[in-house]
Recover the amino acids of this structure.
């Protein structure tokens, strides 16, 4: 698993609190960093899901180190409920989701996630379905602008979309370097030091992989699967992801704002919450981790626990 550095590993394990005999899910196996630490922390059983066939193939060596304890499943974490039920699993004691890209995906130019090295404009996590090039070359200008604004929070989305449509008229945009060059010609560098193409690449990646829909489905299904005392730990990497996680956990724990006193729904009252927040505010990487692994800087960890008969400590 060299080349992959799991983000906020100590904090993830602390809040997941693996125990002997427990059944856990790593819904985003990636480079296997969390999985390895979970298996080392307790004599537990771990299921691991990833939509990337390359990640599942890499995980075979770790599974061989822990025979009968690590079970790898190719698929999306937004479909964890049917995938686990097919494997005979109805309840879990913990779920961890790392919503970021793995270092393997970022550092492999052929996957097309990064503009730092030229490669095909792909961006598919599961290596199936439409690519980023398909979107860039086929979608109408207005739809492209909407994607860049909604999923990348790119203020110059309309100008970028207009430039993309003009450029593709001269020939298909099929490489990361060409798209990045188009965006950089529209968006000037700012004081943050972040590459001007970052937000546009993020937006296309989210759209290609339906990442926000995947998160919503994954959170709902994780909550369904977790037993009393079970824990959900999520590491997000940008505001759109973290906003979904924050809202979901706040509502589950009864912390979301109630309806207006003028809203008839307020007369219905609320049931007792079934969840307890383990993180009142999102946890951030330590300065030391940020220095060692700059990719961790934007990470936010949130966790909650299902109320009821608590799992043994």
């Amino acid at each position: 698993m060299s080349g992959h550095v799991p983000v906020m590993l100590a904090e993830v394990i602390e809040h997941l609190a693996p125990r002997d005999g427990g059944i856990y899910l790593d819904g985003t196996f990636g480079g296997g960093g969390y999985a390895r630490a979970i298996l080392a922390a307790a004599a537990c059983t771990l299921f691991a899901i990833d939509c990337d066939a390359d990640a599942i193939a890499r995980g075979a060596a770790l599974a061989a180190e822990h025979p009968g304890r690590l079970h790898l499943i190719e698929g999306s974490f937004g479909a964890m409920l049917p995938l686990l039920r097919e494997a005979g699993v109805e309840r879990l004691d913990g779920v961890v989701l790392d919503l970021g890209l793995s270092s393997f995906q970022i550092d492999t130019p052929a996957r097309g996630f990064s503009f730092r090295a030229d490669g095909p404009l792909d961006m598919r996590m599961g290596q199936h379905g439409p690519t980023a090039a398909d979107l860039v070359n086929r979608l109408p200008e207005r739809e492209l602008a909407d994607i860049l604004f909604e999923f990348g929070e790119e203020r110059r989305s309309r100008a970028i979309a207009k430039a993309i449509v003009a450029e593709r008229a001269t020939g298909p945009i099929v490489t990361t370097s060409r798209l990045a060059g188009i965006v950089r010609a529209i968006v000037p560098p700012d004081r943050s030091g972040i590459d001007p193409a970052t937000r546009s690449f993020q937006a296309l990646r989210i759209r290609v992989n339906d990442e926000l829909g995947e998160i919503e489905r994954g959170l709902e299904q994780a909550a369904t699967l977790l037993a009393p005392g079970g824990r959900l730990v999520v590491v997000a990497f940008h505001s759109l992801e973290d906003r979904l996680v924050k809202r979901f956990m706040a509502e589950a724990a009864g912390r979301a704002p109630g309806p207006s006193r003028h809203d008839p729904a307020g007369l219905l009252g609320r049931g007792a919450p079934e969840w307890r927040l383990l993180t009142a505010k999102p946890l951030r990487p330590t300065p030391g981790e940020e220095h060692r692994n700059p990719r961790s800087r934007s990470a936010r960890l949130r966790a909650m626990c299902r109320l009821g008969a608590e799992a043994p400590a």
